[in-house]
Design brief:
The protein is built from 9 helices and 10 strands. It has 231 residues and is of the alpha/beta class. The protein has a domain of 134 residues: 3-Layer(aba) Sandwich (Rossmann fold), CATH 3.40.50. Strand 1 and strand 2 form a beta hairpin. Helix 3 runs parallel beside helix 5 and helix 5 packs parallel to helix 6. The chain is globular, with a radius of gyration of 17 Å. It starts with a strand and ends with a helix.
């Protein structure tokens, strides 16, 4: 593994009498693409909420570049370089695609805006209001808004949810481009086949616990995991 940029150590979350995460460890190396998978209710979204500052862990620590960020407010976590997308959210609907990217950079980085638009093939939608774009384009706008901020880690929350087959393949290819350009990515996704083809490593959660971790090839060689999580 390359130098760790994101680390979760023994992270647990308990709300009332419900244990949502139990002693979860996760390491994302510089330049990696890591997928987090598991059934509904496994704790995936809670894991991202803790990582991005929207929720404090009950116990455990979160480190970004070796510095603790658990307990840091979400906007400060984002400024430190942990940028997150959300399901079906791709910027401000009444603004055009380009205006959303200008807003994300406060109009200070024209070159970066143009690069992100070209990288994600958004040129044809440049002057269209986001609310009038397809769901696939809105998702790509969300990714573009994130990468113009040059994140140390990009968290993608179910980037393929709700998309038709052709659109899923297109968005996967765009995520692959972003990763190839050097962005470290951690994503939650239910489309297991496409996730396995995209990521360097998989982390499998179930009932709030990490039950497996490894490359798609390593986990795919275990029949118990294939039957329960990877089919």
């Amino acid at each position: 593994m390359t130098t760790p940029v994101l680390e979760l150590r023994d992270v647990s979350v308990r709300i009332g009498g419900v244990q949502i995460l139990s002693d979860v460890d996760m390491v994302v190396g510089e330049g990696e693409c890591v997928g987090v998978i598991g059934p509904n209710g496994a704790g995936k979204t809670t894991l991202f909420n803790v990582t991005s500052g929207f929720m404090r862990p009950t116990t455990g620590t979160v480190l970004l570049g070796g510095s603790r960020i658990d307990g840091v407010r979400p906007h400060r976590v984002a400024r430190l370089g942990m940028v997150r997308t959300f399901q079906n959210v791709g910027g401000f609907g009444d603004l055009t695609v380009r205006q959303n990217l200008v807003l994300a950079t406060r109009g200070r980085h024209e070159g970066r805006i143009e690069q992100a638009g070209a990288l994600l093939s958004l040129d044809g939608s440049w002057d269209i209001a986001v609310k009038d774009c397809s769901l696939a384009t809105r998702k790509l706008v969300g990714i573009a808004v994130a990468i113009v901020r040059e994140p140390r880690v990009l968290l993608l929350d179910e980037p393929l949810a709700g998309l038709a087959t052709e659109d899923r393949d297109h968005v996967v290819e765009m995520i692959r481009r972003v990763h190839t350009e050097g962005t470290t990515i951690c994503l939650i996704e239910h489309d297991i086949r496409r996730t396995r083809a995209l990521v360097d490593r998989l982390l499998v959660l179930d009932a709030g616990r990490k039950v497996a971790e490894g490359s798609p090839e390593e986990l795919g060689a275990r029949n118990d995991l294939v039957e329960a999580y990877l089919s």
